[in-house]
Amino acid sequence: MLHTPHGIVETPVFMPVGTQATVKGLTPAHLADELDAKIILGNTYHLYLRPGHELIRQFGGLHGFMHWDRAILTDSGGFQVFSLNGLRKIREDGVLFRSHLNGDQHLFTPESTVDVQQALGSDIAMVLDECPAYPIDWHKARKSMELTVRWARRAFEHFHALPEETRVRQALFPIVQGGMYEDLRLRCLEELVSLDAEGYAVGGLSVGEPRELSMAMTDLCVPKLPPEKPRYVMGVGMPEELPQYVARGVDMMDCVMPSRNARNGCLFTAEGRVVIKQARFRDDPLPVDAACRCYTCRNFSRAYLRHLFMAGEMLFCTLATIHNLRHYLDIMRRIRKSILNGHFPETLRDFSSQIPVN
RNA sequence: UCCUCAGUAGCUCAAUGGUAGAGCAUUCGGCUGUUAACCGAAGGGUUGUAGGUUCGAGUCCUACCUGAGGAG
């Protein structure tokens, strides 16, 4: 269990992504009542650029601003630096980048991203890291990893030196990098463990590498992270992969897949994907997933959902996102239950025998 | 009855007489710490009809058909 200033989070947990102070398509009531999500993500990069972290601070941080009283983890912007390739320049002191909104130039440093996340008031903050592209050669991966380690040290130094009276209670997680190279990953991990953080993340996965490699890196890193502390693999995964990450010791995951794919018409079920735009669902009276008990599946047909999608109606995004996130969170609930019951191995086998999502 | 304008993909429209295209729609893919209600691909045509001029016609000429506007 993760004890945060905004409640206890049972692990292993999947965290819905709410980049811009909203899980797109959903109200906080959907998240809390319908999905019972205990923790969601926010993003330093996006919120710093718009509406600005100082404004959010005035509204009582992200929690007050977006009316969410459960836990929030904020990503540092390291991944945005990676995906904004071309708009940025990485230097020793930090990353110089141009806003994707208006081209303004900004500098993120390990220190400034801690400050921004303090203003956002998240329960868990992430250290600024460099997320290298895949593939990358060993020498470049080493340089990148070493920079990530230096940045992590600076972030922690700054974090510990924050003035007691204004400091927001918050955990800070460093991020293991090192490309797909075992030696680099292990060296990075060792350095970061010495920071004695409250939790650790494995980053740089799901950047285009084959699935086996993501799993291999997880296999390598997670067991060597302190077992009594939460271990977070960033940016994963497909629904059927969730139990496999858990089996490797992962406590926390997040991914845009359920929410983004929902908006793009891809609904996940235990029987595989339902691509709702397909003509075969034009007059299908069945729910998306007969086994699902979400609001969408309890009340609406595939034909209706297809109609909403084809008509570009905004309700589609809401109903589809409710379903996909419920599917993800139900998988995690089932996993947690089976762990408590001592039946996780059987549950893992059940999931493995299911039809893969694609 | 006459005059003018217009008929090109399902829709709205491009195309100096020289390989008929686009957007939307349709169908199908993709999406992994959200620059993403996004991106990509495919199918789809006797250019209103019938003649003519020309090496070559969506384009020029003639007649007809359909529609819009105008005159009487």
Commentary on this structure:
There is one protein chain. The protein is of the alpha/beta class. Helices cover 43% and strands 15% of the residues. It contains 15 helices and 16 strands. Strands 3-14-13-12-11 form a 5-stranded parallel sheet. A 4-stranded parallel sheet has the order 4-5-9-10. Helix 6 crosses helix 7 and helix 7 (138-160) packs parallel to helix 8. The longest helix has 28 residues, at 314-341. The mean pLDDT is 96. The chain binds one RNA strand of 72 nucleotides through helix 5, helix 11 and helix 14.
Q: Return Rg in Å.
A: 20 Å
Strand order of the largest sheet: 3-14-13-12-11
Main beta-sheet strand count, sense and barrel state: 5 strands, parallel
Number of strands: 16
The whole-number mean of residue pLDDT values reads 96
Helix content class:
40-55%
Q: Beta-strand level of the residues, as a percent range?
A: 15-25%
**With helices defined by DSSP (H or I, 4 residues minimum), what is the helix count?**
15
Molecular shape: globular
The unreliable regions are none
What structural class should be given to the helix and strand makeup?
Answer: alpha/beta
The separation of the N and C termini measures 33 Å
What is the gist of this entry?
The protein has helices spanning 28-34, 44-49, 53-58, 61-66, 78-83, 110-120, 138-160, 182-193, 211-221, 242-247, 257-263, 295-299, 302-310, 314-341, 344-353; strands spanning 2-4, 7-9, 13-15, 39-43, 71-75, 88-90, 95-98, 105-108, 124-126, 171-173, 175-176, 200-202, 231-233, 252-254, 266-269, 272-275.
